[in-house]
């Protein structure tokens, strides 16, 4: 109660950009209204609380739902870095990388109406790799899901694509990447090894590699690769530990919320 006035609320927006959470958050200076310890999901445009939004921490196997005014409480411990997702009908899929520090004070998250321009491909969380990783690697210790192997692939139809507007594949959140670049910005503690970056393929063509961990990574899909009214295929391959030559050691990573934005 006495802390009400001094509470600082971190506002995390959907337009989270690269490369780190520190840059994705800012202090809004908004005073808490009504409920000191509850976080809140609001409409990014109107600021109105959103009821019935599902807030999930897949690795903690935790999920809760906002009340009629958009408030919720995270009743679970967060170990290191974790991905939190918010799902609500007619809103764009949202996910953000958090730590226990991020949520030590109430947070307000603004989510955005989808307006039909976001096509959700997959809102599950996946672990790529071989379940063999150093304790020092990025986000080790927080992996709880078993690997589905070194790559993920998904087929989907693309209807009503507007070719006069850019088309993006968006990866909501990705953690555990141990590239040289990820290491150089402090995303892991490994001194002597690094991995090649995960690669993203669209209909068999390599369209991007992912060098660092973060939220809302947007990858442009070249128009000429898109098949109208036929199945399209997206594939994400994890990298390999480049210092391990005795056997193949895939980089263990996790990602969630894949969608196409047009
Ligand atoms: Ca591995
Ligand atoms: Ca890793």
What oligomerization state is this entry in?
single chain
- Work out the strand percent: 35-45%
Arithmetic mean pLDDT: 84
Tally of contiguous helical segments: 2
Low-pLDDT segments: 1-34
**The CATH topology of the largest domain, please?**
Jelly Rolls
* Sheet having the most strands: 5 strands, mixed
User: Rounded to an integer, what's the Rg over CA atoms?
Assistant: 19 Å
Assign the CATH class of the largest domain.
Answer: Mainly Beta
Named once each, the bound ligands are:
calcium ion
What's the CATH architecture of the largest domain?
Answer: Sandwich
Can you write the helix and strand succession as a string?
A: EHEEEEEEEEEEEHEEEEE
Helix content: under 10%
How many angstroms does the end-to-end distance come to? 45 Å
Which structural class is indicated by helix and strand composition? mainly beta
Q: Using DSSP, what is the number of strands?
A: 17
General description of the model:
The chain is mostly beta strands and 262 residues long. It folds into two domains: 4-111, Immunoglobulin-like, CATH 2.60.40.1120; 118-261, Sandwich (Jelly Rolls). Helices cover 3% and strands 37% of the residues. The protein is built from two helices and 17 strands. A hairpin with a 6-residue loop joins strand 7 and strand 8 (94-98). The protein is flat. The site of one calcium ion has 8 residues, from loops.
